[in-house]
């Protein structure tokens, strides 16, 4: 463990530990925290490398999210999302071989700002105009898979989709927990054998940060319990806005 952390500078170590805390919070319902962790890790390590470092942390945290909220998932929506998310991941793994870190950053900024604009529009009344149909699910699934591979940004895309489907707070969290558990494990072979961004040290780092991830998960449960559905939606919007600002001034 010591040798793993010794390879990180002080600033990178602090950012990595903060990201671990935010990821734990995100997986138990504070999804805006997950959106904030993406640009923070990208600042420290670059877009593509950060996606490989973050994935093992996400995999560890996903387990706790599913254990706590698994009963609240909307499998009606998940059945539509999964196959198209897998297609998006495959497309993203191919595209990632031709994308520089600067392009990664542009994709991150564009995705976060676009998601933010749609979230605000929905909260101002636009959500009632969005139909619950299979084509929206297909598009969200593919885009979620693609952006998940390109910088672990599916959190913003799927937040837009789940909010537009008018899922109550606990159903939102439970459905997201199952979605990310499955697609994050699906991404592992591509990171190992296609991008070569996950190594033994990536896994050891994630396991070393397990107490911080667990602490974040517990903190997330406490915070979500104090929010009603409307407050929860605006909290996600606010955290997405902070993530967008961080990426712009990176």
Summarize the model shown:
With 250 residues, the chain is an all-alpha fold. The chain contains 12 helices and no strands.
Q: What report would you give on this structure?
A:
This protein has 250 residues and is mostly helical. It has twelve helices and no strands. Helix 2 packs across helix 11 (210-225). It is globular, with a radius of gyration of 17 Å. The two termini are 29 Å apart. The mean pLDDT is 87.
Observed structural traits:
0% strand, 82% helix, 250 residues, mainly alpha, single chain
Rg is: 17 Å
Overall 3D form: globular
Q: Percent of residues in helical segments?
A: over 70%
Judged by helices, strands and strand pairing, the structural class is mainly alpha
Average predicted local confidence, pLDDT? 87
SSE topology sketch:
Blueprint lengths: L1 H5 L3 H18 L3 H15 L1 H23 L5 H21 L5 H23 L10 H16 L4 H11 L4 H27 L4 H9 L1 H16 L3 H20 L2
């Amino acid at each position: 463990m010591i040798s793993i952390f010794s390879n990180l500078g002080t600033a990178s170590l602090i950012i990595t530990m903060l990201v671990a805390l935010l990821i734990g919070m995100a997986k138990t319902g504070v999804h805006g925290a997950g959106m904030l962790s993406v640009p923070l890790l990208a600042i420290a390590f670059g877009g593509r490398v950060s996606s490989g470092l973050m994935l093992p942390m996400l995999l560890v945290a996903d387990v706790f999210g599913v254990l706590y909220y698994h009963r609240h998932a909307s499998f009606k929506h998940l059945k539509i999302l999964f196959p198209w998310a897998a297609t998006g991941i495959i497309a993203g793994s191919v595209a990632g071989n031709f994308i520089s870190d600067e392009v990664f950053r542009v994709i991150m900024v564009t995705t976060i700002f676009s998601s933010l604009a749609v979230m605000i529009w929905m909260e101002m009344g636009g959500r009632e105009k969005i139909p619950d149909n299979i084509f929206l699910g297909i598009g969200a699934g593919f885009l979620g898979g693609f952006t998940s591979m390109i910088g672990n940004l599916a959190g913003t895309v799927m937040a837009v989709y789940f909010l537009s489907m008018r899922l109550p707070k606990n159903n939102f969290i439970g459905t997201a927990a199952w979605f990310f558990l499955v697609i994050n494990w699906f991404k592992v072979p591509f990171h190992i054998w296609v991008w070569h961004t996950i190594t033994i040290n990536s896994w050891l780092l994630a396991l070393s940060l397990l107490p911080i991830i667990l602490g974040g998960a517990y903190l997330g449960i406490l915070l979500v319990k104090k929010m009603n559905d409307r407050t929860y939606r605006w909290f996600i919007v606010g955290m997405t806005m902070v993530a967008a600002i961080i990426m712009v001034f990176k």
